[in-house]
Automatic annotation (TrEMBL):
It comes from Trichoderma harzianum CBS 226.95. It holds the Pfam family adh_short. This is Ketoreductase (KR) domain-containing protein. One of its GO terms (molecular function) is oxidoreductase activity. SUPFAM superfamilies: NAD(P)-binding Rossmann-fold domains (SSF51735). Keywords: Oxidoreductase. PANTHER family: PHOSPHATIDYLINOSITOL-GLYCAN BIOSYNTHESIS CLASS F PROTEIN, PHOSPHATIDYLINOSITOL-GLYCAN BIOSYNTHESIS CLASS F PROTEIN-RELATED.
Amino acid sequence: MCAWIPTTDMPSLRGKVAVVTGASCSVGIGLQIVRQLAQHGAKVYATTRSAKSAMKARNSFLQYPEIAPEAVEWLQLDLTDLRSITELAEDVKKRVSSLDILVSNATAITTSKKIVADRWEKNMAV
Protein backbone atom coordinates (compact mmCIF):
# COMPACT_ATOMS: atom_id res chain seq x y z
CA MET A 1 0.00 0.00 0.00
CA CYS A 2 1.28 3.42 -0.93
CA ALA A 3 0.78 6.34 1.42
CA TRP A 4 0.58 9.82 -0.05
CA ILE A 5 0.93 12.72 2.35
CA PRO A 6 -0.09 16.06 0.82
CA THR A 7 1.97 18.14 3.23
CA THR A 8 5.20 16.47 2.08
CA ASP A 9 4.44 14.79 -1.25
CA MET A 10 2.61 17.54 -3.16
CA PRO A 11 4.92 19.58 -5.39
CA SER A 12 5.07 23.35 -5.32
CA LEU A 13 2.15 24.96 -7.11
CA ARG A 14 3.65 28.46 -7.19
CA GLY A 15 2.38 30.34 -10.21
CA LYS A 16 -0.47 27.88 -10.80
CA VAL A 17 -4.13 28.93 -10.88
CA ALA A 18 -6.94 26.67 -9.66
CA VAL A 19 -10.72 26.76 -9.57
CA VAL A 20 -12.44 24.52 -7.03
CA THR A 21 -16.22 24.11 -7.13
CA GLY A 22 -18.16 23.11 -4.05
CA ALA A 23 -15.90 24.71 -1.47
CA SER A 24 -18.65 25.90 0.86
CA CYS A 25 -18.71 23.32 3.61
CA SER A 26 -16.34 24.20 6.44
CA VAL A 27 -15.54 20.53 7.01
CA GLY A 28 -15.89 19.20 3.48
CA ILE A 29 -13.51 17.86 0.89
CA GLY A 30 -13.78 20.97 -1.29
CA LEU A 31 -12.55 23.27 1.43
CA GLN A 32 -9.66 20.93 2.23
CA ILE A 33 -8.70 20.82 -1.45
CA VAL A 34 -8.66 24.63 -1.47
CA ARG A 35 -6.50 24.59 1.65
CA GLN A 36 -3.94 22.16 0.23
CA LEU A 37 -3.69 23.97 -3.10
CA ALA A 38 -3.23 27.34 -1.38
CA GLN A 39 -0.71 25.97 1.11
CA HIS A 40 1.35 24.70 -1.80
CA GLY A 41 1.40 28.06 -3.54
CA ALA A 42 -1.53 28.04 -5.98
CA LYS A 43 -3.83 31.00 -6.49
CA VAL A 44 -7.24 29.46 -5.80
CA TYR A 45 -10.68 30.61 -6.88
CA ALA A 46 -13.06 28.73 -4.61
CA THR A 47 -16.72 28.64 -5.54
CA THR A 48 -19.76 28.48 -3.32
CA ARG A 49 -23.43 28.62 -4.15
CA SER A 50 -24.22 31.59 -1.91
CA ALA A 51 -22.50 34.63 -0.45
CA LYS A 52 -23.36 33.34 3.03
CA SER A 53 -21.54 30.07 2.34
CA ALA A 54 -18.56 31.97 0.97
CA MET A 55 -18.34 34.08 4.13
CA LYS A 56 -18.52 31.00 6.34
CA ALA A 57 -15.81 29.24 4.32
CA ARG A 58 -13.63 32.38 4.26
CA ASN A 59 -13.91 32.71 8.04
CA SER A 60 -12.86 29.09 8.52
CA PHE A 61 -9.59 29.94 6.76
CA LEU A 62 -8.65 32.30 9.59
CA GLN A 63 -7.36 29.24 11.44
CA TYR A 64 -4.66 28.80 8.75
CA PRO A 65 -2.34 31.80 9.18
CA GLU A 66 0.17 30.23 6.78
CA ILE A 67 -2.28 30.90 3.91
CA ALA A 68 -2.13 34.49 2.74
CA PRO A 69 -5.60 36.06 2.43
CA GLU A 70 -4.95 36.90 -1.23
CA ALA A 71 -4.15 33.25 -2.06
CA VAL A 72 -7.84 32.34 -2.07
CA GLU A 73 -10.70 34.27 -3.62
CA TRP A 74 -14.28 33.22 -3.03
CA LEU A 75 -16.66 33.41 -5.98
CA GLN A 76 -20.36 32.66 -6.15
CA LEU A 77 -21.42 29.89 -8.55
CA ASP A 78 -24.74 28.13 -9.02
CA LEU A 79 -24.10 25.17 -11.30
CA THR A 80 -27.82 24.76 -11.99
CA ASP A 81 -27.86 28.16 -13.69
CA LEU A 82 -26.05 28.43 -17.04
CA ARG A 83 -25.87 32.21 -16.66
CA SER A 84 -24.01 31.80 -13.36
CA ILE A 85 -21.58 29.36 -14.99
CA THR A 86 -20.93 31.74 -17.88
CA GLU A 87 -20.45 34.69 -15.53
CA LEU A 88 -17.93 32.75 -13.45
CA ALA A 89 -15.96 31.74 -16.55
CA GLU A 90 -15.89 35.33 -17.79
CA ASP A 91 -14.88 36.60 -14.35
CA VAL A 92 -11.98 34.15 -14.06
CA LYS A 93 -10.86 34.93 -17.64
CA LYS A 94 -10.66 38.62 -16.72
CA ARG A 95 -8.55 37.87 -13.65
CA VAL A 96 -6.03 35.38 -15.06
CA SER A 97 -4.57 34.47 -18.44
CA SER A 98 -4.75 30.71 -17.93
CA LEU A 99 -6.21 28.05 -15.68
CA ASP A 100 -3.99 25.17 -14.58
CA ILE A 101 -6.21 23.17 -12.24
CA LEU A 102 -9.97 22.59 -12.21
CA VAL A 103 -11.48 20.56 -9.38
CA SER A 104 -15.15 19.76 -10.01
CA ASN A 105 -16.13 19.00 -6.44
CA ALA A 106 -19.65 20.48 -6.31
CA THR A 107 -22.55 18.11 -5.86
CA ALA A 108 -26.26 18.30 -5.27
CA ILE A 109 -28.72 15.67 -4.21
CA THR A 110 -32.40 16.26 -4.79
CA THR A 111 -35.48 14.10 -4.58
CA SER A 112 -37.51 16.20 -6.95
CA LYS A 113 -37.71 15.99 -10.73
CA LYS A 114 -37.40 19.77 -11.03
CA ILE A 115 -36.06 20.85 -14.38
CA VAL A 116 -33.85 23.94 -14.58
CA ALA A 117 -34.37 26.63 -17.18
CA ASP A 118 -32.18 24.96 -19.78
CA ARG A 119 -33.92 21.58 -19.42
CA TRP A 120 -31.25 19.84 -17.37
CA GLU A 121 -32.26 18.05 -14.24
CA LYS A 122 -30.64 19.68 -11.24
CA ASN A 123 -28.62 16.60 -10.31
CA MET A 124 -27.18 16.33 -13.80
CA ALA A 125 -26.42 20.04 -14.04
CA VAL A 126 -24.13 19.94 -11.05
